[in-house]
Amino acid sequence: MTEKSFGLCLNELLKIFNIKGSTLARGINVDSSLIYKWIRDKRVPSYNSSYINLITKFLCSNIYSSAQRNSINNLLREWSIKELYDESLDLDDIISKNLYESQGYSIEKFTEKRKVKETIHDYNIGRNSDVKNESLNAGYEYPQAPNHKENINIIYGHKNILYFALNMLEDAINITSIKDKNIFVTLNNNLDFLMKKDSFTLRWKSALIKALNLGWNVTYLINLNNNVDKVIAFIKDMRLIMNSPRFKIYYFRSEEKSFNLINELFIIKDFGTLVCFLSSKVNKLEHAFVFSSSVSTNILTTHFSSFFAACKPLFSYFPTQKLIKFQEKFAEVESMLGSRYCFKGDISTLSMPTGLYEKFLKLSNKTKEEIDNRVYLHNIRVNSFKEQIKYYKFKDIWFKESIEILVSKKKYAFDQYHILEDVIPTDEDIICHLENVIHMLESNKNFEIALIEQSKVDSVSKLYWMVKENSGILIETLKSDSKELFKFYDYDREINLFISEKSVIKAFENYFISIWNQIDNENKDKEKVINWLREQISNLKPK
């Protein structure tokens, strides 16, 4: 739980176990005032203390039944950030892990604030020499001096600058009086620091998610010349945050000289601005000026906004497959000439015979007009496949589990509500579909499917996409198991992304091929895949 303080972590654990602070104090033999100091973040147990072990043992000793244990496990699962929750751990390990993580977070946060305070040098502009720095531990204030004369601070060191920006973000989003809720961030030189699995990155993402939940708009400006492969890693890493329409990414190319005027900017409207400069020797932040008046922030925001005349949005938003607009875009992209690579994990609707597709639609509650439109668009996709398969490669990566679930539970793993809704396919329907997949494989040399186990590809399965050579990339950004984290995410209007930038398309093609090449030949050999599909069909036929 590295994005939560020790006090918040402990307080939530006490709520989950329905235990009072005074009860915990008696259980671990400390004064109750110490417990409440922990909860209010006035104190944090030191690294060499035994308090976390004592707290963990006491909490677990208050579990008296398996039903209670399961209930607590479920609450912990909902409470934990998905990327940190580990179901393989025992309950006491989960509790101690979260306490240790939050302990480290709190200690590091206090330490970083002290370091930042020590490295800030005041440079008083004009005659306003009596302006004083406020204590960072009390919440740093960014004062506006009279007559547009303000106290400007200089911060030294890459890490100190990052944590100062983080503290600005965490402080600003908690101020309800701020009206202009806009955050601007440039990433012109280095994306690496936002893709590490450290406490800073987790806190940064957590703060962004909270900001989006509270109605803030967040805009990134990135440099595509930096490294397109890193842009893919960046998209994968930011996939959850990108579900909000209030999160935007614009891009530029560094050969445009106008963009060499700045290093990095971090602007929070109505709050403050960091103007950052990089070291000439290493690609790290070296110095940063802190501007805090509304006049300075407005000037720098105008400067930032002027770049957008030469920038393009990296992606456009498209709604769920439930809506016809996305189906139209899908058919449009697939009709473009070029090889097609799809990593979605689930069995492709492209492999579904038109007759079966139409049958499922007619069993739903859709209108005749919508059914006709969807069948028309499905036929565009099928015909595009037939016309192009002789000249271009079509490769799909599916999860074995998606077919096993279809066979055993009569349930399609793809967004079934947009075709099936409450319809349950029959054995004959499933056999018809799988036999059509086999026919497509046997009839087309350039069509291949790799069948992999989802559990073995967790690092790549969290991002699902289809890329069409020279045309575009369609990205599904979020699976439903993370929805409780995001108040802004409306599952009736699920968001997908479309990217048309050529260099990113090429990078995604190469990325798919690299994943394909890492898959064991046994899982993508056409004959073996066909034999495995026939085994699934045999399980559906009467014995």
Automatic annotation (TrEMBL):
It comes from the Bacteria. This is Uncharacterized protein. It comes from Clostridium intestinale DSM 6191.
